[in-house]
Structure formats: structure tokens, C-alpha cells
Write a structure and sequence with these properties.
Blueprint (H helix, E strand, L loop, with lengths): L1 E9 L3 H16 L6 E6 L5 H11 L4 E6 L3 E3 L3 E3 L2 E9 L2 E8 L6 H10 L3 H5 L1 E6 L8 H12 L5 E3 L14 E3 L2 E3 L3 E8 L20 E5 L2 E5 L2 E2 H9 L1
Parallel strand pairs: 2-3, 8-9
Antiparallel strand pairs: 1-6, 2-6, 3-10, 4-5, 7-12, 8-12, 10-11, 13-14, 14-15
Helix pairs in contact: 1-2, 3-5
């Protein structure tokens, strides 16, 4: 069985906000002890206090997460100044947290070192992987390729990059246990009796015909269909 506790709260005082998020998680877990958690936090919170309070409330929890440009959940809705905690408790699914460090220098070596901190069984029995990398790390395919080479290409990988508000010049932060990091990729591997489903949606409305990106350089889109990216932009938007 898998129980999920979701708690999101906002307050000008970090301790009050994280305390309320923890309380909401506990209520929905019905006092079951969580093995793992994912925390998303606004930029201006005291992140060290957030991580310490969660780990104190749930001793031994495997915890990963990152800063965001806004938090959204079914608990509170949208906020750009909150802490959101999702905690998992299960007797059929195992959770294994790891972190790849200094990823920009050598993505493959960093991913390998991260997985080496886990047991061989955790990697061998992996059924699902979650990751929340630094957006200033290498392009996603440079992270996914070595990760799937190590886990197996049949293992799905979900997640998203850390963020900060558009006007901010501060670095986007990643969380692992009580560590606050940059240039890192926190990972959570799930194994055991699990199934998953996903959907993709956004608020954008398409303009013109669908086209395929045909050339990229790192994070830059170079060509779309038979046109350069700039030519494509000019054709549809002037």
C-alpha cells in the first residue's frame, strides 16, 4: 500500500509555513511514517530551516527537492511564496535518494558516482526515477543519457528543473537531505510494486502548423523544420 501526504503552506515566517505543511502531511498520512519526501520552496524562505524541520519531524526520511518560480498543488493552489511537501509512506514501494554533484564538469561521471552511493539492488530493481536538476547544468539529454545507460532505457524518468522568479538573479537551488546545492541533480529512485501514469498539458495555444525541432546546440534551438529558428519566428510572428 502507498500513502501520500501533501502539505502546502505560506507565511512570512518560514518556521510557521513549514510547520503547517508538515501538519497537513501528517494529517493525510494518518500518522504513517513517511520514507521519502519531495519539497519545493520559494526563493525567499530560509531553506536550511525548511529542510531541518522536515527531517526533525520525520526522522530518517529520504528528502530531495529544489527552489521554484511558483508552487502549485491541490492543497493550497498557486503561490509564489510557499513551501510544498509531498511525503510517501509504503510497505510495497522502496525509495532511494541520491545526488549527483558538480554535474557540469562531467555529467556521466557525476551520475555514476551518485548511483554508486545506492545499493546494487536499488539500482537493479528500479522502476521509476525522479530528478530535479539545476537548469544551468548541461542540457537534459546530457543528463538523461548517462542516467538511462546506468538504470536501463526502459526506466522512465520524470521531474523538472529547479527555478527562481523571473526577475531574480539568485542561483536556483537543489535540496538533498539537509544540503543546499547548486550544479547538482537530486534523484529519487522508486522500486517495488508500483505503476504510473502521466499526462502533459500547458496553457499555450498553438500558432500555425506543428513543426519538429531539427537542430539544437546545447539549450539553444537552432532549426525548426526546414527553417532557422529566427526564420520560423519571423514567418509566424513577423
Amino acid at each position: 500500500m502507498l500513502k501520500v501526504g501533501l502539505g502546502q503552506a505560506e507565511d512570512i515566517d518560514t518556521g510557521t509555513a513549514v510547520g503547517e505543511a508538515i501538519r497537513r502531511c501528517r494529517m493525510r498520512l494518518e500518522n504513517a511514517a513517511p520514507q521519502a519526501g519531495i519539497v519545493f520552496a520559494a526563493e525567499d524562505l530560509d531553506h536550511r530551516l525548511v529542510l531541518q524541520e522536515i527531517r526533525n519531524a520525520f526522522p530518517g526520511i529520504s528528502l530531495i527537492g529544489c527552489t521554484t518560480a511558483g508552487e502549485l498543488s491541490s492543497d493550497l493552489g498557486f503561490s509564489d511564496d510557499s513551501v510544498s511537501l509531498t511525503a510517501f509512506s509504503s510497505d510495497t514501494v522502496s525509495f532511494h535518494a541520491a545526488v549527483a554533484r558538480d554535474v557540469s564538469s562531467d555529467p556521466s561521471a557525476s551520475m555514476r558516482k551518485a548511483l554508486e552511493t545506492l545499493s546494487a539492488d536499488a539500482v537493479k530493481d528500479a522502476g521509476l526515477c525522479l530528478m530535479f536538476p539545476d537548469p544551468d547544468c548541461p542540457a537534459p539529454e546530457q543528463l538523461l543519457q548517462p542516467l538511462q545507460d546506468l538504470l536501463g532505457r526502459e526506466i522512465p524518468v520524470f521531474g523538472g528543473v529547479a527555478a527562481s522568479p523571473w526577475e531574480s538573479e539568485n542561483p536556483q537551488l537543489q535540496f538533498f537531505a539537509e544540503e543546499i546545492l547548486t550544479d547538482a541533480v537530486p534523484l529519487m529512485i522508486l522500486s517495488g510494486d508500483l505503476s504510473y501514469a502521466f499526462a502533459i498539458a500547458n496553457s499555450w495555444r498553438p500558432v500555425g502548423a506543428k513543426s519538429t525541432v531539427t537542430a539544437v546546440r546545447g539549450k539553444e534551438v537552432r532549426r525548426i523544420g526546414d527553417m532557422s529558428a529566427l526564420g520560423f519566428y519571423r514567418h509566424y510572428l513577423g
